[in-house]
């Protein structure tokens, strides 16, 4: 009996001794003797059975938090703040086991959550300091830690807010600037998933959509594009992005259906019409006829229809005039090449039917060139009157003038042939009239040639 009593007494003495050490650590903290308080609390928690004491962990969190906040001491314990945070997590974990909910987190409540708030603000201040010094890597680490504290407070119901938008934004920006796009995507993603809206936030949604598209993560690219469109429905980026996604899938039929839907949703947007027309023509046309799809003629006809509608919306759009002029010119060239392929073989003269066919093809070529002329001329009128041109506009002007020269030279050649026929018939009046037309066309060729040669100097 005495032995049992002595054992119990020794255990009580041990318990009292540890309790006294904890009280001593708390007293040293109160008197701001932080190095001594740290040594004392470390000794308390070095004892295995004390590791189940939420009060000990809470005291450790306060001591290490105070060291982290002390400019003269924090360098002596570099991990003081992270140690304080881990200690707070241990405290809250142990307190969560308390069956009586009313008794949970009493110490933290009595302190108005100060230890956690001080950890949050401490990380935030350091993050801001690093960010302003362009040390984006350390800024990211501290913004990330600040958010970890915030998330803990939010999860425990200490604060009612679920997203710290500003800190999350700067965590993403810091990660991006530190060349850590995968980390940036995590924090930008939190903003987008919460459908946050603010000054410049639309760029976050765009960044995420493009980031995942480049990673070939179609599901997430579509997800963030849809979120962006929901939050910022008037921004035209989303429609263009959806078209890019459809284009990258490689299914032209799906892409064209998407264009039709987009144009229906945006009937006044001439750019969607223009891009659709270009897509149709590029799909249907190849300089090598053997490489064209089976429905090439239908696609090109649709391209002409769509490009014509583009110019109905915006008649002064040089790009659309150039494309439509180019389409008609290319058609004329193909007919002309067909005409050239009909030629005498092995010294045998062309048959009357062949000669008739050549005349028909010449007429069709001239008709296509005549269709191209007003559009190419419009390009010249729109661009040549301007000052310094962008590279794209300068290229368009050069191409338009080049084609205008070729078309008019072809007309001169055709008139030269008519002149020879008139001379053979000794039709003096006819020859004179043709000469006048030739002179007029030659003057036009000279005019366009001079313009072409002076483009770089003028523009």
Automatic annotation (TrEMBL):
UniProt keyword annotations, A-Z: Coiled coil, Signal
SUPFAM superfamilies from the UniProt entry: TPR-like
Coiled coil location: 405-458
Signal peptide: 1-19
TM segment ranges: none
Protein name from the UniProt record: Tetratricopeptide repeat protein
């Amino acid at each position: 009996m005495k032995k049992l009593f002595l054992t119990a007494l020794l255990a009580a003495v041990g318990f009292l001794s540890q309790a006294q050490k904890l009280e001593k650590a708390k007293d040293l903290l109160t008197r701001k003797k932080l190095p001594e308080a740290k040594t004392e609390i470390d000794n308390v928690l070095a004892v295995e059975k004390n590791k189940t004491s939420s009060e000990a962990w809470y005291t450790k969190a306060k001591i290490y938090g105070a060291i982290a906040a002390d400019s003269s001491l924090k360098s002596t314990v570099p991990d003081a703040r992270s140690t304080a945070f881990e200690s707070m997590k241990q405290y809250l974990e142990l307190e969560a086991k308390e069956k009586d909910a009313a008794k949970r987190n009493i110490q933290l409540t009595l302190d108005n959550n100060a230890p956690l708030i001080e950890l949050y603000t401490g990380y935030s201040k350091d993050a801001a300091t690093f960010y302003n010094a362009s040390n984006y890597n350390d800024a990211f680490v501290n913004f990330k830690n600040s958010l970890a504290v915030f998330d803990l407070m939010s999860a425990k119901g200490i604060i009612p807010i679920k997203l710290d938008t500003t800190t999350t934004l700067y965590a993403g920006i810091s990660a991006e600037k530190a060349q850590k796009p995968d980390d940036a995507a995590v924090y930008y993603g939190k903003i987008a998933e919460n459908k946050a809206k603010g000054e410049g936030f639309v760029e976050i949604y765009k960044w995420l959509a493009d980031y995942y598209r480049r990673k070939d993560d179609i599901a997430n690219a579509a997800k963030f594009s849809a979120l962006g469109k929901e939050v910022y429905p008037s921004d035209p980026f989303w429609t263009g992005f959806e078209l890019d996604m459809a284009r990258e899938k490689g299914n032209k039929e799906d892409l064209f259906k998407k264009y039709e839907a987009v144009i229906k949703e945006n009937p006044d947007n001439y750019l969607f019409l223009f891009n659709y027309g270009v897509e149709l023509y590029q799909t249907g046309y190849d300089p090598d006829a053997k490489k064209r799809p089976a429905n090439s003629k239908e696609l090109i006809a649709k391209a002409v229809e769509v490009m014509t509608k583009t110019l109905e919306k915006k008649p002064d759009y040089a790009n659309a005039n150039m494309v439509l002029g180019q389409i008609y010119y290319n058609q004329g060239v193909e007919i002309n090449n067909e005409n050239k392929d009909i030629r005498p073989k092995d010294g045998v003269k062309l048959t009357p039917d062949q000669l008739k066919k050549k005349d028909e093809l010449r007429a069709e070529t001239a008709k296509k060139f005549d269709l191209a002329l007003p559009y190419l001329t419009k390009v010249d009128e729109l661009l040549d009157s301007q000052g310094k041109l962008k590279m794209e506009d300068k290229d368009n002007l050069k191409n338009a003038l080049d084609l205008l020269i070729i078309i008019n030279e072809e007309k001169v050649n055709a008139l030269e042939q008519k002149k020879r026929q008139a001379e053979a018939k000794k039709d003096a009046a006819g020859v004179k009239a043709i000469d006048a037309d030739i002179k007029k066309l030659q003057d036009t060729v000279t005019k366009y040639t001079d313009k072409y040669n002076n483009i770089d100097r003028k523009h």
